[in-house]
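Message: A physicist's question: would you kindly supply an amino acid chain plus fold tokens?
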Amino acid sequence: MNATSPEAAAPGRIVLLTTSHRVAPGLLSWPAWQALRSADRVLCADGAHPQLPYLREAGTAVDEAAPTAQELIDACAGGRTVVVVATGEGEPALTDGLARLAGTGRIPMPDLELLPASYDLPGARLLDLVQVMDRIRAECPWSSQQTHKGLAKYGIEEAYELVEAIEDGDRDELREELGDVLLQVVFHSRIAEEDPDAPFSIDDVAGGIVTKLIHRHPHVFGDETAATPEEVKEHWLRTKAVEKQRESVTEGIPLGQPGLALAAKLASRVRTAGLEVPLPTGEGLGYELLAMAVRAEAAGVDPEAALRVAARAYRDAVRAAEGLDA
């Protein structure tokens, strides 16, 4: 009787190759290409997998097959290496089947390697958000009818909820509210794509802010230096003034913001510009609040935030008077 050769008895090797749908197809790591080039067989259950055209263009033969766990083990017999290009779900049925067979202890198992062929870059999940928003805009009866004006109130609400989460120090709530604010940006950008006269996309929005940040940080991306936060602010204001070419320091201040915040912003612009502007005199509480907001800004205090802190204390006192927990 002939003895089985070591080569024939060798269990072989299975390489499960995973890729990210957020990375352009064909951009694979060098270890992934090495595994593909040295494989005895390459399998993929998804005939529409975005990587397949690029693999074949590179000379890699790919069999469109969905083997069972046992069939895959058999394909590795004789020490062969089989690479499985995983679908988006990661082949859970196949890996579960391999685990069950390994658990019996009766079958020589091939070496199993999980090889990430491409990785998500930081911010890659933003691509998912853009795709989800595209589908919602196209298929949701409510979302498909929304306009910039119709959504404006939600932007204000989400901004206030974000501020509340920050002031409460609630990290979970902060993460959620940041997502809600981000949704407003993506939603408005998606609506803007449909404008017949002046369309723009989320890429245009992102590109614009990237350009602005680089231009306004010459101490980071250019030859200027800034050793203190004050010097950074001077750079920012100087470049912003050149960009906007405003005639008045009051230009660009949204008059629709809360009154205390508006007064503080005006006072900040005046102080930064080195102007001497006497406060207007008049009768009534409004002028008193204006003077208080200006004093607060000069002292480095955000009057809007300070009033919210006091208002919360007042709320707690009201609840205590009602016999309720604060």
Observations:
- The CA atoms of residues 209 and 301 lie 28 Å apart.
